[in-house]
Design goal:
The chain is built from 19 helices and 24 strands. It is an alpha/beta fold. The chain has an 8-stranded parallel beta sheet. A 6-stranded mixed beta sheet has the order 3-2-7-22-23-24, with helices on one face.
Amino acid sequence: MRTLRYNGTILSMDQTISRYEAIGVQDGKIVFLGTNQEALTQRWDEKKDLNGACVLPGFNDTHMHLLHYAMFRRNVPLMGVKNIDEVVARCKARIETEHPGYLIGMGWNQETMEEGRLLTKEDMDRISTEIPVCMLRTCIHIAACNTVMLEKIRALKNVEPEVMALVDFEHGILRENAARLYMDVLPQADDAYVRQLIREGQKELNAAGITCIHSDDLMAIAGMDPIRLIGIFREMEADGELTVRVYEQCLVEPEDFERLRGVRSDPDDRDSLFRTGPRKLLQDGSLGAKSAEMIDGYVDDRENHGIPIYTEEELCSRIRAAHDIHMDVAVHAIGDLALKKVCDAMEKAEQANPWTDHRHGIVHAQTTTPALLERMKELGLQAYIQPIFIDADMNIIAERVGEEHARDCYNWKAMLDLGLHVSGGSDCPVEPFNVLDNMRAAITRQNRAGTKTYLPEQALTVEQAIRLFTSDAAWPSRDEGVRGTLEEGKQADLVVLDQDLFEVQPSRFPQVKVLETVLNGVTVYQA
């Protein structure tokens, strides 16, 4: 079928950002770009009048957690809670209406709550003393559990001692790798449950104009084998059920890496909606949890250098295992010490076995220094950034690392000025996958209320911010030749907006409406 959308503003986001009035699609590819007059002289099976709307390449989110989002949305979302009483009230209401056998939730942040402290076992026992309860902090690096959950965790078999050591049984707090232990207590998920989570999550992604995500899902669901999960995604694609491209950031246990290799996508595949992407690793925690690895420690606790997930030897080994088979690696590193360790490990892997075409990267790269950014450039490392993070983190960054070091953090303009490849994501469910709000943060460097600005000299232009989620976001998955811009022959992934972003005040980006989302030429969302 040949479909024409005309009478609009089509922004190609190619190098020159060409503007067109009409765009034509056939068999999932863009086949026409030009004026209304040129378009209407051709034969089309379907014509859609855009009525002045704006068309951009479909939005991308290059780091998020689709299944975590859908799972927590089904349970108890706690984003924006003002105090502990509100947490307790939400959870009790869920128990009273649903009578669940367990309760999990996510999204609380002590930095924005009235009490200014972590949730504890005593708080969780107010929710229930009969069923297991676990509430994860917004960063997912800390969880608070009630007594029932803690006793079930204590009874778990085959938990490594170093992981169990991260459980504070007295206060009911789980940190880093221990924050996943609740999954060993929950009932094991089946295929039908996972399929439904994917359906629910992708529906909301499409409504936000998103056509591609880089998602970390393989260890998200209790009892779901990561290799089986890959199979579920592929089966849903074969059944025509996928409505978003999923480039999987493959986080697996070391013992599962060989199995992952056996089901890895063809690196030359550019057409499948689901593809396995880089090996995902985590090296440290978060600033909010004071577990990000910091060279100089934290302002109020210089002896605390954060919590490393791997020893330097383990990190090198895991990076090298992927590098040697020409599999990209994406490593979570928030603190400057974690970033330094990742750079060291990447350098060793490249020296031992040169691979000039790698696209290894740092997920977050928040706490940097000019020297570390130079090293990233020298090593060819990309940055997966989350501009929306500054909304919350601008309130704590100086408290964590000091005023002087804070000036080197979230330096996105400096990254682009150096020539680093940079793309944008949300880390959802840590923050919502609202691309337009994410762009707003990148351009204004302000909080959502517009009352506070953080390092305005690091602000991006409107063009740079749009590219983070369109043309520049195609590069991490090696797709710049097939999508990310609107050019003839490229995949027809489009988002239709009610306003031209180049004509809107950036502070008002979140008020712009998504009218239609198109994947491979097929409408997957219509307002």
